[in-house]
Every structure is written in C-alpha cells, then in structure tokens.
C-alpha cells in the first residue's frame, strides 16, 4: 500500500544537532510532496515557531499545507488558516496549574493561539541563544499568569523549565498530584503539559480523517517520547538512529540519526522506492 501522508517530527528528527533542517532533508521532503505524499510537520513547537526553513516556504509555494503543532493540541491548514483539530487546556485550568507551579521557582513558557509566550527576559534570551532565528517569534512576557488573564484564549500547552535534578523530582511529584487531567512529557530540562485529549497521535488521526487517508496509508518519523502516540496512528513508523529506546522498539524501521539526515533516508529508501 502506497503512503499518502507522512508526519515528520521536527526537533531531534528533521532538525540536526545545530537546530537546522539540512538541505538534504528539505529536498527529500519536497520530493515526497512532489510524488503526491502529503507532508505534515508534527512538532511540539507552537505554530509561530516552526523552523525558519519551513516558515520561509510560506511566502511562496510550500511543499506542505498542514501542520500539527503543540504536541497535537492543534492541526492547522496553513493555506486557509482553518483549525482542523484542537484539544486545549481551559484557560482557568491553566491558571490553576500556574499557581501550583509558582512555589517551585521554575522557568515558564506557554503556547496560546499559535503563539509562544516566554516568562522573563532571561529565559527568552536563553531560547534565542539555543534556537537563534526560530526563537525570534517568541513573545517575552513579565508574568505568565497576568498574560493569560489578559487574553481570552484557552491554552495549547504549558512548559515549565527545571534546571536541577531536585527541581525535576519536585515537579514530577506536583504533576502526579495536581495534573491528573493532563498529559505531560519530560524532556531534558522541561516538561510539556497539554490536554489529555491532545497528542500527536490524535491529531494525526484527525488529519487522516479530514483527508480521507487510512491508517495503513500513513507514515510517521520521530525520536522522542512525545512521538510515541503517532506510532499508534500510522501504518509505517520510522525511529531515528538517535531515538529513545521505546521508539526504536516500536518502529518498523530505524534510520540514520538527525546528524546523518535520517529523514531523507526514510523518504528515498522507503517512501519513494
């Protein structure tokens, strides 16, 4: 069965160790799209913070039309601006979680209405140093609670940052106690907190239904814990060479690492063969 939809994780997968999409990966994704495969970036980032190589495409004729953002909290048709799927944390519930976080001295960011909010100039500049051009779309706010109260939107995702092992343990205990109605996925220095109805898998299923594409005609590729739900929603699953062990165990194919253009390998050796 030919693949008709390819969901591609960004950080750690399509992006290399320099937080850039290589020319080889860009050409491979464009080739997949030219062959009739719908290419859908599937990212933990907000829509506004897509990798700059993809944002640059939007001014012309991009090879992609649909974006799964904020770990599946939203699916957007970038051609029409229509939201095809969303699963959000109600604003008041997000404010409750922020109050619970306040005693832990955490860094805080949030995804709201497609935007990326960052509390405090220190964390904002740290993001600029790590992600350079991609982080310029972030909005620095002095107080996250006040910023959420000043607008009417529900929240796609909260991201508390911890910088020590002790802070992580305290945060894990707090989330277990206070956030049973949410999903959360830990990364090296932060945790992504989102609606229990949101995941890259549920978003990918919604996009497949919208396009009339069956599960067996969907492929996905990823490297991290937040990509696992996609593996339950796709007929062909690729794990990167640098992927976490649980993804490698669930994958149909393991390809090269993000330093070695594993995405391009998946496209040329398997999807277009």
UniProtKB/TrEMBL annotation:
Listed Pfam families: Hydrolase_3
PROSITE patterns linked to this entry: COF_2
Record SUPFAM superfamilies: HAD-like
Recorded GO MF terms: magnesium ion binding; phosphatase activity
Protein name listed in UniProt: HAD family phosphatase
Gene Ontology cellular-component annotations: cytosol
Species: Hydrogeniiclostridium mannosilyticum
């Amino acid at each position: 069965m030919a693949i008709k939809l390819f969901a591609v994780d960004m950080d750690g997968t399509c992006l290399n160790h320099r937080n850039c999409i290589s020319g080889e990966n860009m050409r491979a994704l464009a080739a997949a799209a030219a062959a009739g495969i719908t290419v859908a970036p599937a990212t933990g980032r907000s829509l506004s913070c897509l990798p700059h190589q993809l944002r640059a495409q939007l001014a012309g004729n991009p090879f992609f039309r649909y974006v799964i953002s904020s770990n599946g909290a939203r699916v957007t048709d970038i051609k029409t601006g229509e939201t095809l799927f969303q699963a959000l944390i109600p604003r008041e519930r997000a404010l409750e979680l922020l109050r619970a976080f306040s005693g832990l001295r955490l860094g805080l960011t949030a995804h709201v209405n497609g935007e990326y909010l960052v509390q405090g100039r220190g964390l904002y500049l740290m993001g600029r140093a790590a992600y350079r051009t991609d982080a310029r779309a972030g909005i620095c706010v002095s107080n996250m609670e006040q910023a959420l109260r000043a607008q009417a939107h529900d929240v796609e995702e909260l991201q508390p940052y911890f910088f020590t092992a002790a802070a992580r343990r305290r945060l894990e205990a707090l989330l277990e106690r206070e956030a049973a109605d949410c999903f959360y996925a830990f990364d090296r220095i932060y945790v992504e907190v989102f609606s229990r109805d949101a995941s890259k898998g549920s978003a990918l299923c919604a996009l497949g239904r919208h396009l009339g594409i069956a599960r067996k005609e969907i492929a996905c590729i990823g490297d991290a814990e937040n990509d696992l739900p996609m593996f339950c929603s796709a007929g062909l699953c690729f794990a990167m060479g640098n992927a976490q062990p649980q993804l490698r165990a669930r994958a149909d194919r393991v390809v090269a690492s993000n330093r070695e253009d594993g995405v391009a390998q998946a496209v040329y050796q398997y999807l277009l063969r």
